[in-house]
Design goal:
The chain is 37% helix and 22% strand. It has 4 helices and 6 strands, in the order βαββαβαββα. Strands 1, 2, 3, 4, 5 and 6 form a 6-stranded parallel sheet that branches. α1 packs across α4.
């Protein structure tokens, strides 16, 4: 059974809804999945999980949340080589540039993106939540 961490930050609850759907999909596929807020996770915890889903909304000028999520992710980034991960988040403006840049950072770090990233504009709709559940299933099978 795969052990999966779903590490996220959410200001309005949109990204939290997505995180919960990722967890549900992973659990439905037989994995042990744990939701963790960004400030509960660190580089040392990476080794405890077979796969990790990172979730963060777009903030400011399409960037990761700066006070909690970005410092945690930066601390983990150099240890992502060979790690199975997935990315998700919500946005309210822009065209998803923050996600493309985040995917590039992960690829440069040597992380293995097990599926396509999921982004939802504002509150995730049924289709967005289904995509998050499918992400959880992909992580469970990775």
């Amino acid at each position: 059974m795969n052990s999966i961490a779903i590490v996220f930050w959410s200001g309005t609850g949109n990204t939290q809804q997505m995180a919960e759907a990722v967890r549900d999909g992973a659990q439905n596929a037989g994995a042990a999945a744990e939701l963790l807020y960004a400030d509960e996770f660190n580089r040392e915890k990476l080794a405890q999980y077979d796969a990790i889903a990172f979730g963060c909304p777009s903030m400011g000028t399409e960037q990761l949340e700066e006070s909690s999520f970005e410092p945690m992710f930066t601390a983990c980034e150099s240890a992502l080589s060979g790690k199975k991960i997935a990315l998700f988040g919500s946005f309210g403006w822009g065209d998803g540039q923050w996600m493309r840049e985040w995917e590039s950072r992960c690829a440069d770090a040597g992380a293995i993106l097990v599926c396509g990233s999921v982004i939802c504009c504002e509150t995730p709709d049924d289709g967005g939540l289904q995509s998050c559940r499918e992400m959880g299933e992909s992580l469970a099978k990775a």
